[in-house]
Amino acid sequence: MKQTQQQAKKIESSEKAPIEENQNNENENISDDNEDIVDKLLAKIEAKRVEEEKIAASKVSVSSNKVPKSKKPNRQKLRKARKAAEMAELQREVENEAKNQPNMNEVEREKIKEIVTTMGLSIKEIKPDGHWQVFLAFQYKIYLYNAISDQLQIKHNIMTDYKELRRKTAAYMRENPDDFIPFLPTKDDGICSPEQFSKYCDELENTAVWGGQLEIIAISKTFKLPVHLIQMNSPLMKISDDEFLNKEPITISFHRHMYGLGAHYNSLRKI
Q: Which regions are flagged for Low complexity bias (predicted)?
């Protein structure tokens, strides 16, 4: 009986062994299949990741191409900007220096006022005659003829204007060239030629050319009147005073700083 039971167990165990082996083989096959599936899924995921990276990289490349390239600095513009900055700095320095300088217009005005007051005179400011000219690279308003015109009217009852004075001054100089040619400057510092003198007189009569001491002498000779000229830091200038005795002089003042760079003449009247 016991032997029979033992044989039965052997048979049972021998029958179970192939079944378990088959089950193990099946499990191994299932495991292999699962691994294949996982590998395929991982491969797909990896392929998708690579594809996405390529797409992202291409977008970045396109985007970077759209960004404008930075331009190189323009050297000429930089030089101009630097020069402008230097000029602005120089202008500030000039302005700061000018603030510390005396106002020459005020200084000159006070000096001349002191002189004429002691002479019993006052300054009659003369309006411009509308003429301008470039002299030694500066612009000068021509007040000389208006100042003398005012003096002729109030002292000698002679009615005239700057145009008539210019015409008469030029006429006198043409009639007496030897009195003026030696004193006229030329571009080459030589002696003024007759042609140059003729041109000078024409410009004096017909343009706004500057009038100075030579023209004052010509006016004095034309009207046979002495002329007294007052200016800052200079003695009283008397023109034709010895020649035309006992005649009331034309009295004018010369202002170098009254209108910035412009020379100016005023008429001096009795107080």
A: 58-67
